[in-house]
Amino acid sequence: MMINKKKLGILIALLISSTAVNAEVISIGYTDQQGEHKEAALSQKFFNPNGDVTITMSAGLDRRMRMTIKDAGDLTIATKTSHVINTHDRLTVNNQTFYGVQFTVSNKLQSGEYSIISETLDLKGTLISTTTDKITIDLTPPKVGPIVAQSYGGLGGKDVPPNVWYTGYWEDNKYRATEISDELSGISEIFAIVKREDGSVYKRSKVNYDSQGKMASIGNGSGWFPSNNATEIYTLQFEVHDNAGNTEYSLAQKMYYDNVNGSASLVAIYNPNSDQSIGGVKGFETYKPGMKVFTNPVKTMYQVPYDNFHTHARGGLIPKGHSQIIDNDKGEPVYVIYTDPYGFTDGNYVSMHDKRQYGGIYINGYNLKLAEDVVKQPVRLGNSYEYSDIGWSSWSRHINVNEMPVKILASKIIAQSRPYEQFFEHMGNCTIPAGETSCVITYDPPKEINKGTIGNWHYGSTLKNKDGSLFSQPGWASVHWNNSALPIITSTEWEPSTKIVTVLANQPSRGYYFDSVRITDAYLNSNGKKLNVPRTKWEENSDNYKFAFDLSKLPDGVYDIDAVIMEAHRNFTTKNVAKFTNDAEAPQITIDYNGQPVKGMVHGINGLTVNIADMSESRILDITLKGGPSKDNIYLAYRNIDKNKIKIEQPRIFPAMIESQQYTLTVRAKDAFGNIGTSSVTFMYTPDNWIKLKAVTALPISRKLLLKNDKPAAVITSSVLHTDSGNIATGPQEGIVTVRSDASFGVIINEQHVGPGETEHIGFNLQGDSGKLELPIYPDSDVKDGHAEFMFDVQQLRSLYDK
């Protein structure tokens, strides 16, 4: 029977030299205060461990790492030194594979700022390099105060239980969590939660945080609650997170939220000539569109369902401007009568609404025709003011600062002519004679609008017949100005790495008279000229504002950035943000091998140098190596030769002798302005001091076989090995064997097993003074045929002759 032979490809790399290396804190592992395990990058800055903390560092092989943690007072909290980092220390954290070490710090880190000092030591314990990173531990949840409400009509109502609000939709209503703060790490995000009466969550959504007012709001609640007429109790609560991951909840507020009007119907019109009766009132006839009406003022009757009237239901309708209510306690409809001039619909005077809002159901929106002999009411056609600067114009005017001062000299009304005198009142009086259409009120002294003041000539007016029984729709002037409540920029922030400018501002008297005083523009200037950059954020919370601008597309140049805020009446305020020379270009990265472009074969990673060129300070983001015969994907450690020149630490990788097995080295660097540069090179590879032996042939039997002379049938051999001093290597040695992961089988070398993809330390003895390897080797299993490549690494040769 013929036995197939086994071929074992053997590689020996003698990696003895040592160089300085940048250790890097890759992650901080911990279980947070909510019981969730985290592997957080150092860039997170803020952490909230509940117990032990594991600090993971990357470093080069053949190094020791010493980790020291000090508090803000420079007191040492913990210090630990690792073993010599070897191929067993290949770690994978957050999808990054690298050589490194992990230190566990027992439950010692309380809230406060700490320094993590990473020291790299060589094999002799000599300090090679030191880096210091700052972190903040925050174990305290954010603070959040009570929920407060600004609610039209108050928060009480019919049959409302204690500590429960009755409120609802109105454009000016507000519901806010107050007194929100976090001293150490700051507020990260806030959610509002609305639950139904059965405890189920109806909506949970993120809300904006007003850092100036220390509050968060759901506005007037629109979109936050189901459709309901104050029959279900909801719960509103705010969930506050800080940047370390701590969470706090506001006290829950129970509330009725009324966003349903319910119904009320126009059912009857009064006719003095009718004997009909509706709602128990004689003279009312059923309303029919287009019917004639024989009185002016007109009497209208509305029917409201019993369970939608405020005397019987919490969310019931409340009439305004009515002349009579016909109520009952029998569950029958309620009737409401209005008496107003023909076509009078102004909701300030006649309406039907529930307690949740000012407006409501439209009253007198009928389709009626006045009988021929019925006297018509006054009808206003227009109003105007005579101004000192522009003459006669609308009595609704927005006056900017550059137009001041202005005087209002007179007011005029234009109306339909009537066969009777019409009396106009508006900060004075005038009379429109019978058959005429206008009159003028002269103001002596004039109404003044001066710089340094704020105001709104928002005065009402009436147009009536002599006894006041007939009148037109009301009218209000609205001439507003502001040169007193000036906008304020409370703070600015410039983040070079993201190129984001953040501006916080405040507008005193925000909301004055229909929100006429408000911020209407925010932008950036540089050297006196407006920058064409996108504004990416505009947030408002009452009188506080937050703006953000993206400067990432700015061309290179010197900039002196000012934030500019404009109030609606062209009041401006400016605050300087930053002066800088902008760098819009990514770092330029070149990778060379012994001073020449990388191409073909690289003999030793140490021959590779990374050069970075950029107009601002840059740093390495990461260096990765992918490919090779075993399809590696590993993050590499590195060391700084000078500010812009980097050397890469030697990893434990297999030689790549053919193009199909090439490695790709990728370097990423980031400058102070957040620009990221990337450069990659591809190459074949051999270690810089290695010996490639011929393939060892062994029988496919998983045990040690001896020849006639009692020597092993398969042996790893080498030429004479020398130490750094030049002496022949002798005596006890230690090697590291790594078998490729794609090997057909594992191997047993010097009676120690190493499986595919595994790395093991193997002791051996260079007997005598030959200085040559003679290590028995055989497969770890009986197989028909196959191939296994491995790397034999002697980190430091020793000799009995070295002293």
From TrEMBL:
Q: Does the keyword Signal apply?
A: yes
Alphabetically ordered keywords of this record: Signal
Q: Signal: is it a keyword of this entry?
A: yes
Could you tell me which InterPro entries the record lists for this protein? DUF4165 (IPR025429), Ig-like_bact (IPR022038)
| Ranges of residues in domain Ig-like | 167-259, 544-694
Segment forming the signal sequence? 1-23
Q: Please indicate which superkingdom the organism of origin belongs to.
A: Bacteria
Residues annotated as domain DUF4165 = 23-140
Q: Which Pfam families does the protein's record reference?
A: Big_3_2, Big_3_3, DUF4165
Record protein name field: DUF4165 domain-containing protein
